[in-house]
Amino acid sequence: MGNHTLIATTLVLGLAACGGSRHEPTEKYYLVSANINNTYWQAAGAGLAKAARGLGVAYEMVGPVTYDPQAEAQAFRDAVAKKPAGILVSVADPNVMKDPIDSAIAQSIPVITIDADAPDSKRLSFIGTNNYQAGLKGGRVLAEQLHGKGRVAVYTMPGQRNLDERLQGYKTILDGHPQIKIAQVVDVKGDPRIAYDTTTELLKGGAAPDAFVCLVSFACPEVADVLDRNKVSGKVVVAMDTDSNTLNWIQKGLIVATIAQKPFTMSHYGVLMLDSLHHYKLPSLDIKWAEDTRSPVPMFVDTGDTLIDKNNIAEFLKAQTSGGGN
After folding, report:
1. Tens digit of pLDDT for each residue in 149-194?
2. Quick check: helix, strand or coil at residue 300?
């Protein structure tokens, strides 16, 4: 391990244990996202709160309650104007967020992306899921459940990098199964009602999909609800994340599996990284760290993912009630 990496790791772990004794009353960290009332982002907000309270610093989660990249960018700019100690941001649209992120870096405000990245910006690091690998994992389940043949509807939001990477993972697996076709890609635009209404319409047609893949957390509970209301069985539904309704539908057998991410971990660890950057300032934030082999910041921190199905859901639920993040 290089000296810079060792120092950075020591700083993060040391600051996590030191409490609020070394922190200024004005020290504040922001988490910026869209759809902030979504259960996924409420979990991330809990991680933000736990880390900040442990450090004895102020914190706030801001952003629109709908999927609105422009409103998210404005919330980010508003946070920058308050000169915080650091900002975490999940990037709905990399093109919209690049300039605001670069502006924050130019003002010496550390910015770390979580969950969804803006790799062409000057953000310091990305903390989140390896989304391509998550897509591969879901694709393997899909191919196995379809027995190598079928038509698939995909629910996503095109242009959001993490979702595009997941879809690419699925496509890589399906390249080896030419009789499985993606028949439709549905832009749900951050709205569960679109997932519900689209599923309803697809079931009315004579060639309804054999499978439904959801790359966003809120879509597959809607899909399962429609299937249940219409008494449709035999469809393969592969979900994303661990909304309580998703887990309930797995137990009831209408969702075959979901891929769990760690939004709590993303924001919790992100605050610790920002805190170390605030207290142990780098000579400059505006450096091409990706090209520096002695960079004190990692370009990517993989928080991991877990495939949940009927075989391990009881174990997963038990881990949630006993975990140290609660």
Report:
1. 999 999 999 999 999 999 999 999 999 999 999 999 999 999 999 9
2. strand
Are 68 and 53 members of one domain? yes
Residues 19 and 124 both lie in one domain? yes
Q: Of the residues 260, 290, 317, which one is the last residue of a structural domain?
A: 260
Strand order in the sheet with 150-156: 180-187, 150-156, 211-214, 236-240, 257-260, 306-309
Q: Which domain holds residue 21?
A: 3-129+262-303
Check whether residue 272 and residue 253 sit in a common domain: no
* Judgement on whether residues 135 and 256 belong to the same structural domain of the protein: yes
Rounded to two decimals, what is the model's pTM?
A: 0.88
Q: Which helix (H) or strand (E) holds 258?
A: strand 257-260
Q: What is the DSSP string of 110-173?
A: -EEEESS--TTS--SEEEE--HHHHHHHHHHHHHHHTTT-EEEEEEE-TT-HHHHHHHHHHHHH
Angle at 33 between CA 30 and CA 34, to 5 degrees: 150
Residues 6 or more apart whose Cβ sits within 8 Å of residue 39: 217, 243, 244
| CATH code for the domain of 222 | 3.40.50.2300
Q: What is the predicted pLDDT for the residue at 5? A: 42
Residue 46: in which H helix or E strand, if any? helix 39-55
pLDDT at 238 over 60: yes
| Measured distance CA(321)–CA(95) in Å, rounded | 39
Whether residue 286 is contained in a domain is answered as yes
Query: At what angle are helices 94-106 and 69-81 packed, to 10 degrees?
Result: 10
Structurally, the chain folds into a number of domains equal to 2
Q: How far is the C-alpha of 202 from the C-alpha of 195, rounded, in Å? A: 10
Residue located via tokens 């891929």: 259
3-state secondary structure (DSSP) of residue 89: strand
Phi, psi of 104 (to 5 degrees): -65, -45
**Do residues 111 and 181 share a domain?**
no
3-class DSSP assignment, residue 299: coil
Length of the chain in terms of residues written: 326
